[in-house]
Structures are given as structure tokens and as C-alpha cells.
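Quick check before the chapter quiz. The format below is the same one you will see on the exam, so make sure you can read both the input and the output lines.
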Amino acid sequence: MRKKHIAFIMFASLMAVSTAPAETLDWPMIQFIRPNTPISVVTQKRFHCNFEKTNDDKLFCLFVSRDLLPFGKSKVTEIVFNRAGIREVRLEPVDDSKGYLSLILAAGGGGGLDSAHQPTSFAGVKMGGPFSLDLQYDRIQSQNGFSTEGSAVIPLFRVPRFQPNKELKFLKAYVEPGVGYRVGGGAFGGYSSAKVLVVLLTNSWSDNWAAPNVEFQRRFPFESPLQGDDRLTFGVMLALCEHCGLN
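Here is the expected output.
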């Protein structure tokens, strides 16, 4: 019975750590958090890291920053929080795929059909983050052209769903509304654009330096919206999540 009572106190304390503001925490009970447990710490902003230890007035946490270079090593940095500055501590597995992408560097190419159902081809690059810039060379109705386009990259959903402590590959879908301009031979000029981007990613974001992706796009010329074209892109992408850092 005594063991059950102690276990109940510890469980209740951990629940308090995950929900209560810092000034109401029973600070000694934080020591029952297991090392390397994912937590979030709120001071002036929210930090995601792995719990390390505490003392009377400090909380120590480990942050893993990602190397952008292929096969690069991750860097572990210790973050020290002063107890007085902590507003909230939560126990939570972090699903980095929920947020926006902080970095996108992609290259790809593909083809499609214009308004006359004639085949088209193109190749280009994409760069940015929550907002991306596309630069593309294309060929429409035997006419060469160049287009530049700005889009928001808005996360939709992932398949399969996030599972803590499992390194799973998953498909992540984004919608990209945007506007662009095409110069060169043939039609278009200014246009609006609707795109859907699907990327194959993994929870280990340091491995996502060459993630395969597919993007479907419909372009609507401002002067004749019904005379647009459909395009399908295949490419590879270096992708970093919102909380992964750029170190």
C-alpha cells in the first residue's frame, strides 16, 4: 500500500510539471522526470529539448542541432534555464512535422499539358521556408520561357500519424497558393497558382537532405484564367522543420 501511495504522489507531481506555471511547481518533484525525456520549456519563448537534470535553481536541458551537410553529425548543446525565468514546463513528445518548414532547398523537373492539351516541359529550383521562391525554365508550344513565382507553404497532414520514440518515414502534404510571372515566347505573363506538395520525410530531420517530393500545380493567367496549364514536378529537397535549427 505504501508503494502505491508513493507512486501516486510521483504521478501527480509529474502531471503538475506538465501543466502548472513555474511559480506553482513543486520544484523538487521535477527530478522524477527521466533523463532524455522530450519536454518543452517556456520562458520568453518556447524551447523544445530533452530533459537532463535539475538543481535547486536551474533546469538543464539538451538541444540537438542539425548539420545541413549530407551525412553530417548532429551537435548536442546544453541549455541552462534559471528557475525564476521559467513560466511553464511540459512533458510532451515533439512532432516536428506539425509546424512549417524553416528551410527548403529543392531542385526538380517535369511536364504537363497546356490549355490546348499540348505537352510542356520545365525544370527549376525552389528555395525558402514558410514562403518559397520558385525559379523555372520551361518550354510551352515550342516557345522557351522563364518564370518566377512566390508561394506560401502551408502544412496540411502527414501519413502515417506521429508515433513517439519511433523513427518512421512518412508523407507530408502542403498546399501552396501563390502568384508568378512568366516571360519569353508564348502565352501567360502574370498568373496565380495553386499547388499541392507531397514530401517523403523521416522523424530524423538530419536525414532529410535529399527527400524525394512530388508537386502538382495549376496555373491561372490573369488575362485568361481558364486558359491555364497543369504541371507535375518530380524532385529532391533538403528540408528542415520549424524547430530543428540551422546549425
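If your answer matched, good. The chain has two domains: 2-94, 101-241.
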